[in-house]
TrEMBL record:
InterPro entries: ArsR-like_HTH (IPR011991), ArsR_HTH (IPR018334), HTH_ArsR_DNA-bd_dom (IPR001845), Ptyr_pPase (IPR023485), Ptyr_pPase_sf (IPR036196), WH-like_DNA-bd_sf (IPR036388), WH_DNA-bd_sf (IPR036390). Pfam families: HTH_5, LMWPc. The keyword DNA-binding applies. Gene3D superfamilies: 3.40.50.2300, Winged helix-like DNA-binding domain superfamily/Winged helix DNA-binding domain. Residues 137-231 form the HTH arsR-type domain. This is ArsR family transcriptional regulator. CDD domains: HTH_ARSR, LMWP_ArsC.
Length: 238
């Protein structure tokens, strides 16, 4: 059966509507996608323009209310604003919930606000699909909170995660130098973090660079950032 994904934000006029069209396009229609809002308005012209610029179909794309979903259930519900995150937690408590808080491009004074939103969504959706395909036999994309804390409980994995949160992107040699651990050990633990979905990577010539997965649920990102802000001695040599 196809996975079912719902994107939610307040007006369902820009962020969630763009995400719906983009995931449908990027997944080759292998995923059933919907979007809705708590106070739906109408598709923002600039949102449609950003989609068309990427050759993404906007046919039948319209703003919809949460109420119109009826009793529909979803494999994943992804909120794209603070209000949606707060209200979705209760409304979709029985379903896998991910929060991506993106700034509302309609409220920005930047001329390229909708382009930036489209770029951010492209990156997050790409990682969502990558992890979804890699972990197709797992019931939940990121498992439960206890599994997150379990993988973060290892001192080396925690330290490397904090280093990546601090610096943004590092290669294996950077992490070896910062931790004082052997390259095989560092690579093994990076592989575990990547398999879990905590990290993403990119290749540049013969180097592989790692960073935090931009598609992480916000609560995970917040836990990592709070730990980093605590000035933990784990990264004092970074």
């Amino acid at each position: 059966m196809k996975k079912r994904v719902l994107f939610v934000c307040s007006g369902n006029s820009a962020r969630s509507l763009m995400a719906e069209a983009m995931l449908r396009d990027m997944s080759g229609r292998e995923i059933e996608v919907k979007s809705a809002g708590f106070a739906p308005s109408s598709p923002h012209p600039e949102a449609l323009k950003a989609l068309k610029k990427r050759a993404i179909s906007t046919v039948n794309l319209c703003s919809k209310s949460i109420a119109s979903l009826g009793s529909d259930s979803f494999d994943y519900v992804i909120s794209l604003c603070e209000r949606a995150r707060e209200e979705c937690c209760d409304l979709f408590a029985e379903q896998n919930f991910i929060a991506w808080d993106l700034p509302d491009p309609a409220k920005s004074e930047k001329a390229i606000a909708f382009e930036e939103t489209a770029t951010e969504l492209t990156e997050r959706i790409h990682m969502f699909l990558t992890i979804l395909q890699r972990d197709s036999e797992r019931p939940n994309l990121y498992d439960e909170p206890q599994d997150f804390f379990k993988i973060m409980a290892d001192p080396l994995r925690l330290r490397m995660t904090l280093l990546l949160a601090q610096h943004g992107e590092l290669c294996v040699c950077d992490l070896v130098a910062a931790t004082g651990m052997s390259q095989p050990k560092v690579s093994r633990h990076l592989a575990q973090l990547r398999e879990y979905g905590l990290l993403s990577d990119r290749k540049d010539a013969r180097w592989v660079y790692y960073r935090l997965n931009p598609g992480l649920p916000d609560w995970m990102r917040n836990v990592i950032q709070l730990t980093l802000n605590a000035k933990t001695p784990l990264i004092k040599t970074a």
